[in-house]
Write a structure and sequence with these properties.
By secondary structure, the protein is of the alpha/beta class. It is 38% helix and 13% strand. The chain has 17 helices and 14 strands. It has a 4-stranded mixed sheet, with helices on both faces. A 4-stranded mixed sheet has the order 9-10-8-11. A two-stranded antiparallel ribbon has the order 1-2. A hairpin with a 2-residue loop joins strand 6 and strand 7. Helix 7 packs across helix 10. The longest helix has 17 residues. It is globular.
């Protein structure tokens, strides 16, 4: 019998957060699983809260259920490698995933958008466009996950971010859910003047959603998306010009005390602001779609909650980054991993995933009703109104870089300094010194 080590993980959201060092030896959180030497094996690296790899299927997450479907259909064994985050000082999941993929340590990976772009550009990920299941994908999935003409990742859900609003507090002060940045600031002013110390609960990961909504509302909804992205990639347009209004908006929120920048800088997602939101102390937080579906986040509040888009010039704007499953280009079991992917991304598997987690499917053939709290956000998405928080077609990675530069703002950097950081990234992408 051959022992396969697994590293257990704690996931704060589908967009993967921090993780501590991931080595094959010496971790205090190792879990083992025995796998016969002669068994077909696919090694999977993913944050899936699977502390017991031998648990019965009924206890698995939605993603685990689709993996189980592939195991049964193909006769393979999927061995998990996962791991537990501790605090904001630990290594990020992205850093660990990059190391593992570059060294061909696994076959299947669940990756954040910045890692998808980096590994895709390095040729470290297989082209998935030939999979049968890829034929059913929404166009948005192909756009967001295509690098150098290759579809290098496929998600099991379209992750939509929005503002979670305590409607009882809003009604108490005769407030309506805001559409524009100006209306949002007015809501915050009224809330603060009525004794709510910090109207917006924030963390170190998701404030970039405000920026994307304002930066790209017109780019993605103005009918000229392809040309605008081409201008950015050529350097004739500057990312900093798009980003500046959103950063100035965040700076205003910080300066007026509507966001606690010092707390946000060291707070993990939901852990930092969740308790205050659930207790009614903070009436507004930002989170991903699935957080409205689970009792471990905001799915079981004692008050009426609505999830709306972020304020923009075009009204409430959902922000949609893309995590995705990918197969290592030089993985040891790449062919079997491709077969597993094809089953996991089939309409049958995605229907199971969507019904279990009640999420938006990447397949154009799969529909699931959302909970009432999500209807405002869902309505905008169904209308085709949203911005992408990640787009592999842009030559500057969006989600990860914007997150880091927002942290600079939280730590005291000026808006001009933040814009200079975007200019430096763009110049680097264009080959300028």
């Amino acid at each position: 019998m051959k022992k396969r080590r697994l590293i257990s993980l704690c996931l704060s959201a589908l967009i993967v957060l921090t993780m501590v060092s991931c080595s094959r030896g010496g971790s205090k959180n190792l879990v083992t699983k025995d796998t016969p030497e002669d068994e077909r094996v696919v090694n999977l690296f993913s944050p899936m809260e699977k502390t017991n790899p031998d648990a019965e299927n009924v206890a698995r997450t939605a993603a685990d259920l689709t993996v189980a479907m592939a195991e049964e259909k193909l006769g393979v064994n999927v061995a998990y490698w996962t791991y537990t985050a501790e605090d904001y000082q630990d290594r990020t999941y992205d850093e660990v995933a990059l190391d593992r993929a570059r060294n061909n340590m696994d076959d299947l990976y669940l990756l954040n958008p910045d890692v998808i772009l980096a590994l895709g550009a390095e040729g470290k990920l297989r082209d998935l466009s030939g999979l049968d299941s890829a034929k059913n994908l929404r166009d948005i999935i192909r756009v967001a996950n295509t690098v150098d003409g290759k579809l290098v990742a496929i998600p099991q859900e379209v992750v939509a971010y929005g503002l979670f609003v305590n409607m009882e507090i809003f009604r108490r002060y005769s407030l309506e859910p805001p559409d524009t940045p100006e209306e949002f600031l007015e809501c915050c002013r009224v809330l603060k003047e009525n004794g709510i110390e910090t109207p917006v609960g924030a963390n170190r990961w998701w404030l970039e959603t405000f920026v994307f909504a304002q930066a790209y509302a017109d780019l993605y909804n103005g009918g000229n998306t392809e040309a605008e992205i081409a201008a950015l990639n050529s350097g004739s347009a500057r990312y900093s010009d798009y980003m500046r209004p959103g950063f100035e908006f965040l700076k205003t929120l910080i300066d007026k005390g509507y966001i606690d920048a010092e707390k946000a800088l060291v707070s993990e997602a939901i852990d930092g602001e969740g308790a205050d939101f659930l207790s009614g102390k903070t009436p507004i937080v930002m989170a991903y779609w699935g957080a409205a579906n689970t009792k471990t986040a905001y799915g079981d509040t004692d008050f009426e909650m609505q999830v709306i888009g972020f304020p923009s010039s075009r009204g409430q704007m959902p922000v949609m980054p893309m995590t995705g499953w990918a197969v290592g280009a030089n993985a040891e079991h790449a062919e079997d991993a491709m077969l597993v992917m094809d089953v996991m991304m089939s309409d049958q598997a995605l229907q199971l995933f969507a019904e279990t987690n009640r999420v938006i499917s990447p397949s154009k053939n799969v529909k699931v009703d959302c909970v009432p709290a999500l209807r405002p956000l869902n309505d905008r998405i169904e209308e085709g109104v949203y911005v992408l928080g990640s787009n592999a077609g842009m030559n500057v990675e969006q989600w990860g870089n914007t997150c880091l530069i927002v942290r600079d703002l939280l730590a005291g950097a000026s808006v001009d300094e933040c814009m200079a950081a975007f200019d430096a990234l763009q110049d680097e992408a264009l080959g300028k010194k």
